[in-house]
Amino acid sequence: MNASTFWFLAVGGSAALTHMLVFAFFQHRMLPEVANALGFCIAFFVSFAGHRLLSFKDAGTSVGTSLGRFIVTALAGFVSNELVFMLLWRGLGAPSLAALFVALVFAAGQTFVLSRFWAFRR
Questions:
Q1: Distance separating alpha carbons of residues 18 and 95, to the nearest angstrom
Q2: What is the reported pTM?
Q3: Are 55 and 8 in contact (CB under 8 A)?
Q4: Any idea where the domains of the chain sit in the sequence?
Q5: Which residues, 6+ apart, have CB-to-CB distance to 23 below 8 Å?
Q6: How far is CA 112 from CA 26, 65, 97, 106, in A?
Q7: pLDDT tens sequence across 77-96
Q8: What distance in Å separates the CA atoms of residue 108 and residue 12, rounded to the nearest whole number?
Q9: Taking a C-beta distance cutoff of 8 angstroms, is the pair 103, 82 a contact?
Q10: Per-residue pLDDT tens for 48-60?
Q11: What does the longest C-alpha to C-alpha distance in the chain come to?
Q12: C-alpha distances in angstroms, 76 versus 1, 55, 80, 95?
């Protein structure tokens, strides 16, 4: 495993854990879909900072360009996350945290590809 892959997994895991903790705290205080969105918003900052500074520190783009592209990348990941979450939780009746975990793993693959080859292009 190369350093970029290691850091992507470490940063992604940290952002996913942040997302899940925020969700777990707020899911009974608001609609779970809203708690998922709030978790995404907070985890976004963990993710961007970590990926820019660690996973893709040799990016050939400026911070501003990377941020703009990563916002698009993260929003695309969130849309797929929310769709999978709602399908599993509302559609199939899966437990909310399990549904969120599967949705986060699904979105992580998409985010890696878009981050590596576009947002933080080398």
A1: 19
A2: 0.84
A3: yes
A4: 3-119
A5: 32, 35, 36, 38, 39, 96, 97, 100
A6: 27, 17, 22, 11
A7: 899 999 999 999 999 999 99
A8: 7
A9: yes
A10: 999 899 988 887 8
A11: 44
A12: 26, 19, 6, 24
